[in-house]
Amino acid sequence: MFKIKLWTMKVKTEAFVKSPGFIEKLGFIKSSVISILLGLFVGVLFIFTNGENGFAFLGTAFVRALSTNIERTLVYFGVYILIGLGLALGFKLKIFNMGGSGQILSGLLMTYIIMNSIGNDTKNAFLIFIMFIISGMLISVICGAMKVYLNVHEVASSILLNWIFWYLLKWYMTVSGTPAASPSLNESMAMLGNSLWALCVMLALISVIVVYIVFTFTTTGYKVKVIGNSPTAAKYAGIKSEYYILMVMAIQGALISMAGFFYYFLIQGSITFNKDLVPQLGFDGIPIALVAFNNILGIVPIALFWAIVKEGAAVAITTPGFNNLQPEVADLIFGIIIYCSTLYIIFIKLNLWTKIKEKLYLEKDIVTKNQIAIYKMEIKNIKKLIKEIPNLEELANIKKEINNVSKSDKQKISELSYQYNELKTFYNRKYLKNISFLKESINDAIQNGYKNYELNSIKGLNINFHNKKTKRQFITLDIIIAKISRHDKKEKANISKECRELIENTKQDIEILKESYLASKLEAKTFIKDLKIKYKENLKENQDTEKIKKEYFERLVEVKDKYDRLH
Hints:
- The chain is 80% helix and 0% strand.
- With 567 residues, the chain is an all-alpha fold.
- It folds into 3 domains: 2-350, ABC transporter involved in vitamin B12 uptake, BtuC, CATH 1.10.3470; 365-446; 458-563.
């Protein structure tokens, strides 16, 4: 049965990989990778303009982050997972919680209050950890409550709370007798045994798994998606948006506060009050969530990359040869990456790659190209008519009548002006409607023509092969599932044998299909190669290029029917 299950899993996986949903997600993965590579390249150029070797700097940063400073890098990794995850959940719900710093500061304030009361001992670690998280959750929920019940935007309330808790912590430290900086925190309170990073990374990864399961496979996750995508639809579906907003903001507060706990106990150690600057840690999750496109699992590799750059850059600038670089170089590089990812999102939204392919196709399909040229000429003529609307006889007569009416007869002027504007609007809408129809005709001509070209050119051979292969596999899969679901335990051996035979027969059929497809493809390629040579020769010898292009395209879209052996 194991081999049967393995085969069925393989077939389902192949179908999933080729599904539109997976292809869309793959596009986002590609955009993240491309934006990171572009960001690194532009960052390298900036470093070169500063007089240092950008590639050497990045190499040093990555090596140091993953060797001598690996423990701190892994702590950053866990911290950035938690912050990015918390903010991504909010972004999915269209909640822009900018109060991460305030939530972390509230946890720090609670930590110092507890430590001043019962001491800085590891036996109190669990209590401090829980109170740190609860404090952050409460502040986040307050922002959510203000949004839900008082219609106060979460960006405004969360940013104000950042400053409130900054000054509260500063005031408490001053009263406690430590105005310049807070006392050092005991890092062993956030460690697992002798490992600096183990507890942080473990909790971060557990959080990712739990959040992914809840928000992907449960009704809670589905309802959150509905609220995020369409609050009005959620309302009419009877989903209590207020409850889910408060729930998500509470989870955000917990995750961000957990990140703050590990950051201050394992990396920062204390907090200084020399300058009135709210800690930036709460904002560091924003780029991670954005570059990962709010994908829960996608946050993990982005957080790792950001941790390497952050820790590696901080160490690299202390090495000889890079002393002129500022500590903000890591933020600069990641800022460029965010900018590049934004540009790539625009590229995806505008579907530029498809438009480029359609443009190349149009250069071959001279008939469709000429038809589109006719549509565009009609649009141009209609736009001229729109400009001439005021000169139409009906409108000109009304205008003349308005001019002949006595200025004292305001009612008559008002009636004629209304009549004039209504008639002008009528013609304007009529022409605009025609333009809209022609534009739709252009889009339909391009899309239908390109689709026809793909299906009937050499690419159609590939499409036909994969369609037949998938159909054959799924016919077998349906039979196997039916046999397995209804089988008697006594007949298990016979059914397993039948299923294995079905799979083997299917594999043989697909192998035959593949051989036919490869032979067809080889013949088609040879034909197209010869066709291109002849086409170029004809263009040189003959002046009627339009006729030659038309004949060439007609031959291209005959390829599938001519060479496809899979009929």
